[in-house]
Amino acid sequence: MHNFTEFFRKYSRLILFVLLLGISLFFIYKNNKYQRVLIFNAANETAGSAFEIYADGREYLSMKKTNRLLAEENAALRAQLLSDKYKIYNKWMNSDTTYKQMYTYIPAQIINNSVDKANNRITLNVGSLHGVEAGMGVISPDGVVGVITTVSSHFSVGLSLLSKWKVSARLRGSSFGTLSWQDTDENTLTLDRIPSYVNVTPGDTVETSNFSTIFPEGIPIGRVKSFNLDADEGYFRIKVKPSNEFRNLGAVYVVDYMFKREQLMLEDSASVGDPKE
């Protein structure tokens, strides 16, 4: 009670001013049509602005959920592409074909990333509980990102293209070779073993080949920047600008090749007993 009395005594003049101001505004509003319209419009404008701010806030808070739903939808749509299926021919009529799923996609976000190390790594916010396994590829809407190497329940870590591993790649519509990062420049990859008879032009698209158990065929990797010919070997060495900006990676998809184990087991079985080199 003492505190209330002290507060009232301290701020009595301010309280009286606010009270008289409120009474004055009430009579102005009640007895003057012009001022009443002004006050009414001002109140509407203020309320409208408040509701707009509230709506923007709700939209921002729901954006994460919306983005997740869109990523899941995109992953499902991508899995329906014919390029991610293989044909099953009817044994009676080759013209009657059906398709079976080869790849599925797990949407994810990159939550950590490096570009200035000898082996640059990416961390994703999905793990074994989401179906991720070591050896799966990672792509973005722009192209190849990397490959998963380590998985926990909720997270996974992989090597990006800016590291010491190799990808089977090709010039679009042409020969395939081996792509790797042999530089310290995050904007330059190297495509080797392209035969000298191939027509190479700056700007040509470099993409994944069909000789991969990690990525589907035809995923963009980058574009040709420059090239030179090794006359002794008879191959081009091609400098490639990546299609991804590795400093700005965000939404990605983990690629699950559904027949990878079967293919690798068969290839290992077939190689048993081969002559030793």
Strand content: 25-35%
What's the domain count? Answer: 2
**In angstroms, what separates the terminal alpha carbons?**
97 Å
Give the count of helical stretches: 4
Number of strands: 14
Descriptive notes:
- This protein has 277 residues and is an alpha+beta fold.
- It has 2 domains: 2-59, no CATH class; 105-268, Rod shape-determining protein MreC, domain 1 (Thrombin, subunit H), CATH 2.40.10.
- Helix content is 32%, strand content 32%.
- It has 4 helices and 14 strands.
- It has helices spanning 2-10, 12-31, 33-79, 260-271; strands at 85-89, 97-101, 103-113, 121-124, 137-140, 143-151, 156-160, 167-171, 176-180, 189-195, 205-208, 220-230, 235-242, 251-257.
- The strands form 3 sheets. It has a 6-stranded antiparallel β-barrel with strand order 3-4-7-6-5-14.
- A hairpin with a 7-residue loop joins β3 and β4 (121-124).
- α2 packs across α3.
- The longest helix is centred in the N-terminal third of the chain and has 47 residues, at 33-79.
